[in-house]
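Blackboard transcription, Thursday session:
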Amino acid sequence: MNPTISINDSHRLQVAPLKIPTRLLLGPGPANAHPAVLEAMNTSPVGHLDPAFLGLMDEIQSLLRYVWQTDNQLTIAVSGTGSAAMEATIANATEPGDVVLVGVAGYFGNRLVDMAGRYGADVRTITKPWGQVFSLDELRTALETHRPAILALVHAETSTGARQPLEGVGDLCREFNCLLLVDTVTSLGGVPIFLDEWGVDLAYSCSQKGLGCPPGASPFTMSPRAMEKLQKRQNKVANWYLDMNLLSKYWGTERVYHHTAPINLYYALREGLRLIAEEGLASYWQRHQKNVEYLWQELENIGLTMHVEREFRLPTLTTVCIPDGVDGKAIARQLLNEYNIEVGGGLGELAGKVWRVGLMGFNSRPESVDQLIAALRQVLAK
Amino acid sequence: MNPTISINDSHRLQVAPLKIPTRLLLGPGPANAHPAVLEAMNTSPVGHLDPAFLGLMDEIQSLLRYVWQTDNQLTIAVSGTGSAAMEATIANATEPGDVVLVGVAGYFGNRLVDMAGRYGADVRTITKPWGQVFSLDELRTALETHRPAILALVHAETSTGARQPLEGVGDLCREFNCLLLVDTVTSLGGVPIFLDEWGVDLAYSCSQKGLGCPPGASPFTMSPRAMEKLQKRQNKVANWYLDMNLLSKYWGTERVYHHTAPINLYYALREGLRLIAEEGLASYWQRHQKNVEYLWQELENIGLTMHVEREFRLPTLTTVCIPDGVDGKAIARQLLNEYNIEVGGGLGELAGKVWRVGLMGFNSRPESVDQLIAALRQVLAK
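(Written on the board underneath:)
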């Protein structure tokens, strides 16, 4: 003890036990976690090298391969939120000087640009107005022009609600000898994904959207082609926490200690994935599509329109145009404070122009739509 | 939907709901979380910009200042485990070419060396046999020799159980105009710390040890001196996820979205910290000291000895010498499988030579000691 120094109590808050309102989370995420997932999370932690935990890690790996439809050996959950998994793809794939071509049609495309720059990439961009997507022809032209080492695209742009079609993009990348890196944060679970069929080399996601879990443990996968680039690199990955050379030895058969995993979040993730495997991906995807179509119809019924062309709308996240003369922020605040319903506002180009409404995982239910529409009717009528 | 591609069910594991044995976690961490903490964690998530959540973030900041005994404005929890918080200190403080001097007397000193190298530091080391600590004179000589921009020390070496005294080190660092960076992963909560009194500029910790929470949201703090270095740097921080320029705008009054925080882990952390503030730091520290002294006495009573000199032993983690002729790994396995008690093995120089026994947070109780000693008596007698 240090009897010479006295304890300073100026920051010793005396607060009551946690009281948090119960919200219906229909924004861009987090969505409400499935009750069974919360229950699983509540299990007392064990050690990160406990045989019981190592077995659970193997199950998570297999189930992630299932929801992503990939055979990639290196398919894991990183110990951070979706942005950490995003950074993990960039950090491990990018070597200083690499040309990284990013398709930017929203906020998260820009984030990829920022991250790739930090890892020394020669970053190039192609852009589209927010809410639109790139055609195969546009991508071919861009690959011809920039000859990148990596093409990075956002499958589901959380800021716009647009779904970037990926069929044929992997073949194109092979033709131009580059890796295909894809953001599936708002698609995994809720939107059909066939990583291997589409030739995706690196992908990342999160737990708190389509998978119906709390945030904090985030799916990451890389293909044998991406692994080869990693193994050939001259320098260490410039990020210790997310270095797949180290992480693969913890998730692989060696079980070399790397960091203390967020044990309880892995309990949760395992349960979220288990529930999807039990229901089956086809049913899970169809449910998301069916419920979002119900949402679109009901929104139209109360006179609202959608920002994204129907063909490219995500089943998980819808951008709803704020009618002229309506204060979008005030409406969102009212929904939260008076109805305990969260919807998101617009970002960047769409700030002030749209609400973002998510129907993801456990929240993709007709009841969510009914509850939101009833509240919207009332607040918009005022 | 993609009717042309059929879903591959080869990774569709059909598994039962989670069943995890209940362990008494007396290794180097995680420790068992306090039951009230698990209960708080189980609250349904809200959004990361929900006013209810932002209020909770403020409470966490204040309570972290209390347990660390600092007034640092930038005191937050990063959205990853302790290693992420460690990397956050290095990433934000280190500019390419900076001389970073690391005191290495265990595994985590070496990890700091590895990390600092990845951020372009000119890394120098001073070393001690594992289990020993550096004197002020030795530190002065090293500062004179290396003239570093940053001196990095491990307050509580999780691999050895040694406590590095920090009194006077901050003054020394000011004399030599360098920042003092300190690992408090295994000390925060359980070991007296006076960050401001000691002149520490950067510190990090974890949630799953002295604070009695599950792992995954990790304390980080930096002083105004360290902030000044950050603000003056020429290049972006080479890590987007842990960039304090961005994170401080989310934790500060601006509330600019950065990433989706692991909401439920913050619920847990808030409760863990709240319980400490309720009990009071002095009592909390004394409890750790009293219980570990009871452990030492009981270990001696069954003929075991400790690796670290008494003066420098941590109250949170004890390295116990494995007696000659005893298979340490086999004993640990037996404790786990037959008694549901986890203790850790040795790392690096101490591999095969010690067990690591933690009494941290909720687990720092006489009952933990009794349960361990009773089991050890039996397995060692066989």
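Lecturer's comment: The CA atoms of residues 182 and 371 of chain B lie 33 Å apart.
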